[in-house]
Design brief:
heterodimer; A: about 325 residues; 6-stranded mixed β-sheet; 12 helices; 10 strands; about 10% strand; B: about 100 residues; alpha+beta; Ubiquitin-like (UB roll); 5-stranded mixed β-sheet; 1 helix; binds zinc ion; Urm1 (chain B); cytoplasm (chain B); Mopterin_synth/thiamin_S_b (chain B); Ubiquitin-related modifier 1 homolog (chain B); tRNA processing (chain B)
């Protein structure tokens, strides 16, 4: 009744890969998963030789698995890259403080430098304070705007020109789908890019872009990784709306659908001449922006009007 | 039947933060499909919809492992529970 691994044909299969339906033993799964991430990194030339790479570390499953895989690949394939962990402390009491403890344990375990930047220090506002002022309804969008800015500032501060994040195939497919639902044709093609060129001197990359969420979780499970899985108190619930439920249902009946959606998004790539937003610099902070003021500065302006006694200094590069 | 049930990947939030429950199952709980309903009705006070669908199927995105083996290789919900099984529910939906 036990099934043999289809890869080594010697050990017992313990995992059915959602990605391709193969039945594999623990050791083969771990190795195949790592090889595929290596192939993605090579294929898209995500890391230049000698380049220092920031890894966005939240303490969650994706970024914890990413740190583990990159550390192993560096050793196996002699990557000439140094890694540094970058964490954002949004200031979410009872949530981020605990997840940062997980990051610190991993920092020690993998012996990597860690840079933590906080919303409070960078912008004068913690997320808890922002939500007290503006209410909880758009908390994820405020948080996203400021996180983006905070990561850029942290990367500049420690002179990292490339940031690797744990975004996976399910995240990418979800983004493509959401942009379809919104009819945002410009974003559909951008949402599935592997390396997003935000600024001339700062890039992001996603080594897990072809890795299924479920495989990342299984990888973390089989490796007994130490990760933090409590839900953010401001995220309304774990199912996060219809597109995510749809994608999970789709994956169950048609596993390759996840990758098919990402590929569809890429086929929608618009020619350069078409209506891409004009890129300019924010007049206040200098960040790349499609308007005179970037979204982060617009948000901070609104906040400071609501509570003008606090002095805000936005760090400039 | 004595079993250990694990709630991993954030599912502990649905069962009052218990990561592991050791229990003796009632006689009629013989297969995983019964166990899933038993957990929903006996261990969860709220947010059951994050564990099972309206059709009482396990929510897609939650992996089930019996003694560290993916239940997809064990006939899924038709797997017959054995004495001292360690049954893990592992969410890929929670946290991030
Ligand atoms: Zn094998
Ligand atoms: Zn700005």
């Amino acid at each position: 009744m036990s099934i043999l691994c289809e890869n080594c044909k010697t050990k017992r299969a313990v995992f059915l890969r959602p990605k391709n339906g193969s039945k594999v033993c623990k050791e083969c799964f771990i190795e195949l998963f790592e090889e595929e991430v290596h192939e993605t990194i090579q294929k898209f030339q995500m890391f230049e030789p000698k380049e220092k790479i920031g890894i966005g570390a939240s303490g969650g499953k994706d970024s914890t698995a990413l740190i583990h895989v990159l550390t192993k690949l560096k050793e196996k394939y002699k990557y000439e890259n140094d890694f540094v962990l970058i964490s954002i402390d949004e200031g979410i009491h009872g949530y981020r403080d605990d997840s940062l403890e997980t990051v610190k344990r991993n920092q020690l375990f993998y012996n990597l430098p860690l840079e933590i930047v906080s919303f409070k220090d960078l912008f004068g506002w913690s997320l808890d304070d922002i939500i007290l002022n503006l209410g909880p309804s758009n908390s994820c969008s405020y948080c996203g705007i400021l996180r983006r800015q905070a990561l850029d500032l942290a990367a500049q501060k420690i002179s990292v020109k490339k940031l690797a994040t744990g975004h996976n195939a399910n995240d990418a497919a979800e983004t493509v789908l959401l942009n379809f639902l919104r009819g945002d044709s410009v974003r559909i093609s951008r949402s599935s890019e592997f390396i997003i060129n935000d600024q001339n001197d700062f890039k992001r990359c996603k080594p897990f872009i072809y890795a299924y969420q479920k495989e990342i979780v299984a990888y973390a499970y089989f490796n007994k990784l130490d990760y933090f899985s409590t839900e953010c108190p401001y995220a309304v619930n774990a199912l996060r709306g219809k597109p995510r439920i749809f994608l999970n249902d789709l994956e169950r009946v048609h596993p390759s659908g996840i990758i098919d959606i990402i590929d569809s998004g890429q086929l929608f790539a618009l020619p350069d001449s078409s209506i891409k937003p004009k890129i300019q610099k924010c007049q206040k902070c200098g960040a790349v922006s499609s308007q005179n003021l970037c979204q982060a500065c617009i948000l901070l302006e609104k906040l400071n009007k609501s509570k003008p006694k606090i002095e805000i200094e936005i760090e400039k590069k | 039947m004595n079993v250990t049930i694990e709630f991993l990947g954030g599912l502990d939030a649905l069962v009052e933060k218990q990561k592991e429950v050791k229990t003796t199952l009632p006689k009629e709980i013989t297969h995983l499909k019964h166990l899933i309903i038993w957990i929903k009705e006996n261990l969860m006070k709220s947010r059951q919809e994050e564990f099972v669908t309206n059709e009482l199927q396990i929510r897609p995105g939650i992996m089930v492992l019996v003694n560290e083996i993916d239940w997809a290789l064990l006939d899924e919900e038709n797997y017959e529970i054995q004495q001292n099984d360690r049954i893990a529910f592992l969410s890929s939906l929670h946290g991030g």
